């Protein structure tokens, strides 16, 4: 009888499938003039003690490549064939008939966002940052350990086999909240508008593993979730965040309910119930924009190899120390600054 721990190896075999129906559409098999968007860390070294090299490869390479391969297969010969993952997600969100395409694009984007906040050199929250001060000022929280407790309880309440993403989000008033998305759900795109703080301007976000065409002599694409330094920046300024809010030029109303219109796939989103300390005088605008700061993937393939079948709670516990919280703080500040004129 085969050991139950052969699951990760089976995941890799599926992701690396070279059957005619899949292999010809793998990102690595497409135009040779393309460069793959790399992760912001060395997969082969892992992110210890959170994820071993083997487990990290399952999540960042095998799973992500498999998702992109199947998305390429679904979009071949369609209007989405030459679109980026983000463009595909925005367009397919308006057509319920393309729900499977939307789901694969959403998964590629969600997984990339999850990995983009992990670091081989993680940082702790800064006590005097606006993010930490908001936590301290929130009566139902009061401290970072309290946030950890609430967030972790949300994960513990999920079904044991749930393939969900759990997100820490904010709104234009600085309120913080925790929500989950399931199946093809995402908080990164709603009504064709990209959600999430950052300053990437009008450029198109590319996800981990996606192929990007680069002309001869140009620099390869930056790691997923980051942007290249501006030309002429002194000393090679640090890359900025690519996760941003793109306000749509006009709010087009589809004749049918968009696939991705709801932030939660299991029911209506009630912002007043997910945001801590929401001010009553802001009630009319609370939740009009929910913006992701960081998320964790609770899919079993993310933790099975290192933590075992029932190791999700330990996996979540160790995740907190693998996050670059300075990056999360910067995202919180960038979004608030960008929204100040509209509050």
UniProtKB/TrEMBL annotation:
<dbReference type="InterPro" id="IPR019832">
    <property type="entry name" value="Mn/Fe_SOD_C"/>
</dbReference>
<dbReference type="InterPro" id="IPR036324">
    <property type="entry name" value="Mn/Fe_SOD_N_sf"/>
</dbReference>
<comment type="function">
    <text>Component of the mitochondrial ribosome (mitoribosome), a dedicated translation machinery responsible for the synthesis of mitochondrial genome-encoded proteins, including at least some of the essential transmembrane subunits of the mitochondrial respiratory chain. The mitoribosomes are attached to the mitochondrial inner membrane and translation products are cotranslationally integrated into the membrane.</text>
</comment>
<dbReference type="GO" id="GO:0004784">
    <property type="term" value="F:superoxide dismutase activity"/>
</dbReference>
<protein>
    <submittedName>
        <fullName>Manganese superoxide dismutase</fullName>
    </submittedName>
</protein>
<dbReference type="GO" id="GO:0046872">
    <property type="term" value="F:metal ion binding"/>
</dbReference>
<feature type="region of interest" description="Disordered">
    <location>
        <begin position="215"/>
        <end position="263"/>
    </location>
</feature>
<feature type="domain" description="Manganese/iron superoxide dismutase C-terminal">
    <location>
        <begin position="280"/>
        <end position="330"/>
    </location>
</feature>
<dbReference type="Pfam" id="PF02777">
    <property type="entry name" value="Sod_Fe_C"/>
</dbReference>
<dbReference type="InterPro" id="IPR036314">
    <property type="entry name" value="SOD_C_sf"/>
</dbReference>
<feature type="compositionally biased region" description="Polar residues">
    <location>
        <begin position="242"/>
        <end position="259"/>
    </location>
</feature>
<dbReference type="GO" id="GO:0005737">
    <property type="term" value="C:cytoplasm"/>
</dbReference>
């Amino acid at each position: 009888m085969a050991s139950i721990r052969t699951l990760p190896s089976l995941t890799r075999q599926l992701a690396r499938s070279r059957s005619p129906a899949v292999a010809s559409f793998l990102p690595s098999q497409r135009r040779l003039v393309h460069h793959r968007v790399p992760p912001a860390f060395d997969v082969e070294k892992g992110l210890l003690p959170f994820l071993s090299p083997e487990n990290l490869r399952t999540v960042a390479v095998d799973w992500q490549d498999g998702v992109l391969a199947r998305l390429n297969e679904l979009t071949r010969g369609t209007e989405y064939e030459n679109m980026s993952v983000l463009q595909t997600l925005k367009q397919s969100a308006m057509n319920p008939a393309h729900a499977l395409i939307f789901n694969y694009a959403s998964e590629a984007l969600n997984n990339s966002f999850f990995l983009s906040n992990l670091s081989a050199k993680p940082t702790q929250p800064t006590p005097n940052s606006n993010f930490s001060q908001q936590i301290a000022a929130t009566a139902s929280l009061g401290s970072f350990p309290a946030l950890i407790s609430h967030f972790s309880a949300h994960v513990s309440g999920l079904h044991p086999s749930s393939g969900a993403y759990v997100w820490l989000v904010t709104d234009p008033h600085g309120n913080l909240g925790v929500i989950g998305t399931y199946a093809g759900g995402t908080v990164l795109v709603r009504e064709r508008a990209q959600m999430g703080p950052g300053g990437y301007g009008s450029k198109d976000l590319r996800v981990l593993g996606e192929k990007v065409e680069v002309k001869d002599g140009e620099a390869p694409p930056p790691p997923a979730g980051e942007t290249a330094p501006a030309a002429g920046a002194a000393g090679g300024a640090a890359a900025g965040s690519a996760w941003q809010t793109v306000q749509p030029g006009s709010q087009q109303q589809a004749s049918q309910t968009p696939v991705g219109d709801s932030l939660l796939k299991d029911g209506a989103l009630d912002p007043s119930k997910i945001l801590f300390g929401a001010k009553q005088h802001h009630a009319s605008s609370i939740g009009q924009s929910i913006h992701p700061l960081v998320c964790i993937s609770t899919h079993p393939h993310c933790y099975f190899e290192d933590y075992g079948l029932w190791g999700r709670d330990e996996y979540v516990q160790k995740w907190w120390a693998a996050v670059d919280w300075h990056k999360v703080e910067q995202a919180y500040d960038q979004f608030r600054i960008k929204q100040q004129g509209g509050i």
